[in-house]
Amino acid sequence: MTAQILDGKATAAAIKSDLTVRVAALRAQGVTPGLGTLLVGDDPGSRWYVNGKHRDCAQVGIASIQRELPATATQEDIEEVVRELNDNPECTGYIVQLPLPKGIDTNRVLELMDPAKDADGLHPMSLGKLVLNETGPLPCTPQGVVQLLRAHGVEINGAHVVVVGRGVTIGRSIPLLLTRKSENATVTQCHTGTRDLSFHLRQADIVVAAAGVPHLIKPEDVKPGAAVLDVGVSRDENGKIVGDVHPGVADVAAWVAPNPGGVGPMTRAQLLVNVVEAAERASAGAAGAAAVSG
Ligand SMILES: Nc1nc2c(c(=O)[nH]1)N[C@@H](CN(C=O)c1ccc(C(=O)N[C@@H](CCC(=O)O)C(=O)O)cc1)CN2
């Protein structure tokens, strides 16, 4: 069997095309959505991601607000920029690119963000809303996984999903999204403490691999016909991405989200969705307030 590709580039392009129309409608009402980013330090991967986010913004008509600090920045330096972005009227939503340099209290930085401007869905308030099933910005990579499966007609309802990884940006929140009534999956969360990972993987209709361990998932770990999404990022000695999924898995699975080209582009597209939705909410709120006072 050679798996079909869960094509993140094409799916993200379709989402961006829809957003272009929604941004034009907002602009016609005098509202220009703006994405802010804060990049701390000089990690080339993080810089690449941030530049990509601003390229995407330019494509769909979202304004860009870029803030940078050196790797030597203190907690106070970072918090000052966060406060500035909270108060900046041109910034509809923003992200703090992760990871932050060692020694910085990341949770404190995220908690200081205005939850109404959380474009990443990583503020405690946004994660709390997800737990409570309330409307709010969704974490970008997890929601990218859901949208990629939906776009390709992979059945989520009733599926057994095995997630490998428990990091805050991906692994922790994927089960929260997939077990909502609208998705209705059954989720097993595995991590470095899991005994007999291969046993769990072999039960899965859908595998989401977000461990950051090169080629952790081997062909013999996968049930024939499963969908396997590779979200792990490691780099080889030449800086090339090596995912969590061994290439031989494509001979066993029915669907594979490659890495690169799978969930990564969806992460970026979901970020834009969050910014546009925040601008639409703000615009509807302003229109409602005007109607009441008028
Ligand atoms: N504040 C955040 N920080 C980080 C997040 C996040 O969602 N919010 N996730 C990752 C990095 N990330 C976004 O920031 C991200 C990762 C991958 C891609 C992507 O498009 N990848 C490409 C390939 C990239 C390459 O060749 O290097 C792909 O998969 O095709 C976009 C964004 C950690 N930090």
Under CATH at level 1, the class of the largest domain stands as Alpha Beta
Can you write the helix and strand succession as a string? EHEHEHEHHHEHEHEEEEEH
Stated plainly, the CATH topology of the largest domain is called: Rossmann fold
Mean pLDDT: 96
Instruction: Give the strand line-up of the largest sheet.
Output: 1-11-8-7-5-6
Q: What is the molecular shape?
A: globular
Intertermini distance: 64 Å
Number of helices: 9
Helix share of residues?
40-55%
CATH architecture of the largest domain: 3-Layer(aba) Sandwich
Question: Low-confidence segments, ≥5 residues, pLDDT <50?
Answer: none
Counting helices, strands and paired strands, the structural category is: alpha/beta
- Report the β-strand fraction as a percent range: 15-25%
What is the total number of structural domains? 2
Instruction: Tell how many strands the DSSP assignment holds.
Output: 11
Secondary-structure blueprint of this entry?
Elements: E1 4-5, H1 8-28, E2 34-40, H2 44-60, E3 63-69, H3 75-87, E4 93-96, H4 106-112, H5 124-132, H6 140-151, E5 160-164, H7 174-178, E6 186-190, H8 197-202, E7 206-209, E8 227-230, E9 234-235, E10 241-242, E11 255-257, H9 263-293
Parallel strand pairs: 1-11, 2-3, 2-4, 5-6, 5-7, 7-8, 8-11
Antiparallel strand pairs: 9-10
Helix pairs in contact: 1-9, 2-9, 6-9
The structure holds ligand LMY7XDAE.
Structure, described:
This protein has nine helices and eleven strands. The chain has 294 residues and is of the alpha/beta class. The chain has two domains: 30-115, Leucine Dehydrogenase, chain A, domain 1 (Rossmann fold); 140-264, Rossmann fold (3-Layer(aba) Sandwich), CATH 3.40.50.720. The strands form three sheets. The chain has a six-stranded parallel beta sheet. Strands 3-2-4 form a three-stranded parallel beta sheet, with helices on both faces. A two-stranded antiparallel sheet has the order 9-10. Helix 1 (8-28) runs parallel beside helix 9 (263-293). The longest helix is centred in the C-terminal third of the chain and has 31 residues, at 263-293. The radius of gyration is 19 Å and the shape is globular. It binds the ligand Nc1nc2c(c(=O)[nH]1)N[C@@H](CN(C=O)c1ccc(C(=O)N[C@@H](CCC(=O)O)C(=O)O)cc1)CN2.
